Amino acid sequence: MARLTPAVLRTLDILELFLDDGAPLSAPDVVRKTGLPRTSVHELLATLVARDYLQKDDVSGTFRLGVRLLHLGNAYSARFDMLSAANDVARELAERSGETVSVALLEGGDVFYLAKIESRDNLRLPSSIGQRLPASVTGLGKALLAYASPQSLATRFLDPDNLPRMTQNSIGTLAELEVELQRIRERGVAFENEESTPNIRCVAAPVRDGTGAVVAAISMSVPVARWQQYPEEIWIGLVLEGAQHFSSLLGFSVSPQGQGAGSAGKSEIP
């Protein structure tokens, strides 16, 4: 287990004092309740005030929770809003396509699966809700990496010549991945060609929040034999429509000019 940082623990102990009833506390109150040295308490309180995690009343000298914690709480709540939207959109897209639909977030060099609706065929895929897979071998991961900071790629993949592999089709080097990511930015969708699971193709698209930032991705996983039955534009159109709907639920406004392939009308699987 990693060593815990004493200063961080003390800071959290102070913040958690305000969880009981939210009443203001003075510095002597904090010293008494935590048992921390007076000097340490004053330094930690001053730091929390400077970063807006606490507010100080200059008249009474007491402290209360600051606005920065409200921002963190809103960000935490937004994740639950995203989860609700992810399940709704994934279910709708799975019903329309008959295929397995997944939603994931980017965490380091991995994708974290937030939602998944199985196809009628109940495909055997290595992914499940709450699981992580290497981003470079999945359509979801590549759709997210394409819009991540270029500088961050090196930190996400510390061995650029040996990226994680799950099949013989997995991309093996960071240089190859960067070429693929450029194609994804140009086309607006990412593909996976049996890179995490044999005999499975995948198409994925990025999902944007109200600021326009890419915060998630949505994908459809399709058996190769079924993929080949329909034009590629059908699969692209379906996942783009799902991504656009998801983005709109998160507050992103899609202009008619920026909707991309498949947006002229609803794509359907016969």
Outline the low-pLDDT stretches: 256-264
Mean pLDDT figure = 88
SSE ordering? HHHEEHEEEHHHEEEHH
Largest sheet: 6 strands, antiparallel
- Output the number of helix runs: 9
Structure, described:
The chain has helices at 6-16, 27-34, 38-50, 67-97, 139-145, 150-156, 174-187, 224-227, 232-249; strands at 54-56, 63-65, 100-107, 110-117, 132-134, 190-193, 200-208, 214-223. The chain is α+β, with helices and mostly antiparallel strands and 270 residues long. It folds into 2 domains: 6-68, Winged helix-like DNA-binding domain superfamily/Winged helix DNA-binding domain (Arc Repressor Mutant, subunit A, Orthogonal Bundle), CATH 1.10.10.10; 76-258, GAF domain (Beta-Lactamase, 2-Layer Sandwich). The chain has a 6-stranded antiparallel sheet, sandwiched between helices. Strand 6 and strand 7 (200-208) form a beta hairpin. Helix 4 (67-97) runs antiparallel to helix 9. The longest helix is centred in the first third of the chain and has 31 residues, at 67-97. The model is unreliable at 256-264 (pLDDT under 50).
List the helices and strands and how they pair.
Elements: H1 6-16, H2 27-34, H3 38-50, E1 54-56, E2 63-65, H4 67-97, E3 100-107, E4 110-117, E5 132-134, H5 139-145, H6 150-156, H7 174-187, E6 190-193, E7 200-208, E8 214-223, H8 224-227, H9 232-249
Antiparallel strand pairs: 1-2, 3-4, 3-8, 4-5, 6-7, 7-8
